[in-house]
Structure formats: structure tokens, C-alpha cells
Amino acid sequence: MINVIALGSRGDVQPYAVLTRALQDAGYAVRLLATRNFAPFIASFGIDYVPLDGDVQALLHSAEGKALMKTRNPVTLAKGMSALAAPLARTATEQITAASQDTDMIIASATGAWLALNVCDALEIPMLFTLLQPMFAADEYFSCIAPQPPFALPGFINRASTNLSYTGFWLVVRPVLNQLRHELFGLPPMPRLGTQKPYLNAKTPILMAISEHVAPRARAWHKNIHLTGYWTMDDADTYTPPAALVDFLAAGPPPVYIGFGSMQNDDPAATADIALTALAQTGQRGILLTGWGGLDAAALPDTVYRLDATSHHWLLPQMAAVVHHGGAGTTAAALRSGRPSIVVPFFADQPFWADRVYRLGVGPRPIPRRKLTAATLSAAIDTALHTPDLVQRAALLGRQLNSENGTLRAVQLIEKHLP
User: Fold this and answer.
1) Which domains are delineated in the chain?
2) In what helix (H) or strand (E) does residue 324 lie, and over which residues does it extend?
3) N or C: which end of the chain has fewer CB within 10 A?
């Protein structure tokens, strides 16, 4: 039995639901452990599912969660996330332990690994560490959970940024984990430093669900780090869109998609007004995806369609451009669509992906959420739609990403290392 543990927003959970389904299709006994608010979504994958207590949506919508999405300091982010999640950590650890008694391997996301480490140590189960972001120090990348510098920095500064941000993050969450280790399992405390060392060995691979075309492998990364490509399941052939949406798409030129996923807006009506004004100023039709951000508009013009949920694989290739928050999963879907991306990052790893989009030349300069106005969004839409080289590069990158099968590659690597 394989347990796959994924904690976070929908963008954090969806790739692991895809991986769980792929392992199941390959003949393995496997189940996904994720918070219970994703139960309806996970049910659509037809996989075994163990619900965990907790609701990331509720945490992000709390006053503390809203404040965290405004921070630019990774240590402050770590402190805030640790404080928010601490009350749930004990219950989730107990539930993971109970569900892992018959488990041969735990596959953990970056967020799930913090709790899985304790369980694996207590039950002597091997853990396969996986990532949606390049979290290991490298000359080529500034820390992926920090605001990105406006210009290239020397390699030693990039390495230091990652080491410092993750050391700070670890020092914040370590007391919570050590308390659980002692009280639940009677285990000795984890070390103050060097938390990445257990992963960096030649015996167990580290899987990054990232494409080499988007964030190429760093020269200094250990040989057991594998960039598999994105973990995606193309549901375009099975998704049934609303008839009204099909009619809207057929009624005019490709619209601009605007949606911010699980990000919470302090004033959803104001955000919707920014989007509507920018669309009007650029003469574009639009689709507003509400998501958790609660984008709202009391009365929409005929040129704008409001959508609560959709298949990115089906919808985004039919867009003229994609405006999004830069979450790892949404960025992957937007880039695979072959359409220009306009990224409005909020926090965490989103500025990193926004920077990658810009440096790859497949989107205009990112617009930090605090700088989002109708004027900045209008200018970005105009740049995205009317820069031929940018449009061509986005289309080429989309073809390259769609030629990969990151999910299959991940399954093949896991198969080689099952106990």
C-alpha cells in the first residue's frame, strides 16, 4: 500500500490526485490523504481517499490568512502558517498514523512532508519526497518563497537566499514538530539545521513536478533530484461545459481569462471592477473565474461571462490570454494552454512563477497584487495580446509541455524505488 499525502490549496492537492490515479491505473494499491473539504473534487478521480481534518480554504479566508497573503517576508510567512496550522497538526498527524499502519511507502508533498516525517520515523516507513517548486539551493534561482529580485544576482547570493529562507522556515516549524514527536511517538527531537540532508541521498529519488522547459535543472542539484514534468490529467474529452459557456465562446473572438484561484481578496467587488474596466479599456471579451477569491460583479456586460469552476485543460487553450495568481498548478495549466500569461502574484511561491513566466518571454512583467489596477492590467493585456514574439513563444512552450508526460515519468521512478 502507498499513501500519498498532500496538504494545501486545490492547486497543491490536484497534482497528487493525478499521481494517485496514475499509480492506481498502474496496478498499485494507493490512497490519497488530503483535507476533507476536497472530498467532492477528489471523488471525481475515482481513487481511494482518506479525509483529514482541516480546511485550507477557511484558513486563507480568516483574518490571519488574509494578512499572510500580504507578507513579503518568508520567515513571517512561516510563523503565520505555523500558527494557523498548529491546532490541526496533532489531529492530522494522528490520522496519518492511523492510516499508515499497513503502508509500504509514503509519498509526501512539500507541505505534507513536515507531518509525514514524524510518522515515517515512528513506523519505520520510507518516505519519497516530492515538490511542486524548486526548493533546493542553486546558483540559478533565488529563493522560490521570497519576492524575486528585479535583476540577475550572483550565484552565491541565490544559494544563500534559499538556505536562509528555509532555515528560517524550519526553525519556526521545528518546535511544533518536535512536540508532536515527543508526545505522540517518544522520538528524539529533529536537528536544528540540515533538514534537507535526509532527502539528499542516492537511495531515494526526489521528484519535482516541474518541466525542464520552465525551470531547468540546476547544475549543483544532487543526482537523486528528478524533474519529471508536470503531473496532469487531460480531462478535456470528458468535461461537459455549461451550454451557456459554449454559446458565449462561439459568439465572438477568444476572451481573456481572469481568475485568482484560492487567493482571497479583501474587496472582491473592487477586484471585479478592475477586471471589467481593464477588459473594457482593451476592447476584450472576458471570463471571470470566481474560485475561492470570490470575484463578484452584480451586473456583467454581454462581453463578460462569470464562471464558478471549469476544466483548465478544456478552457484555457480557447482563451486569448490567461490572467492568474501564479500558483504552481495554475501556472502549469496556463503555460500548457499555449496562451500568454499575465501573472498577479500574491505570496509564497507565486512571485517565483511570475518571474519565470516573464523571463521565459511568455508573459509581460508581473503585476504584484498590491499594484493591480485597471491601468496596470490594461497595459499588461495589451502587451500580452499585441507582442507577436511573446505570443509565438507562448505557443511554442505550450507545444513543448504537451509533448511531455510527467505523470508517467513519476510513476516509473516510483516503481524503481518501491520497497
Assistant:
1) 2-230+404-416 (3.40.50.2000), 243-402 (3.40.50.2000)
2) strand 321-324
3) C
